[in-house]
Amino acid sequence: MTDVPSVRGAEVGRRIGVGLMYGLFRPRVLGAWRVPAAGPVIFAVNHSHNIDGPMVMGVAPRPTHFLIKKEAFIGPLDPFLTGIGQIEVDRHSTDRTAISRALGVLEQGGVLGIFPEGTRGQGDFASIRAGLAYFAVRGGAPVVPVAVLGSSDRPGRLVKALPPLRSRVDVVFGDPFEAGDGSGRRTRKALDEATERIQKQLTAHLENARRLTGR
Question: Which of 72, 105, 117, 189 is least surrounded by Cβ atoms within 10 Å, i.e. has the fewest?
Answer without folding.
Answer: 189
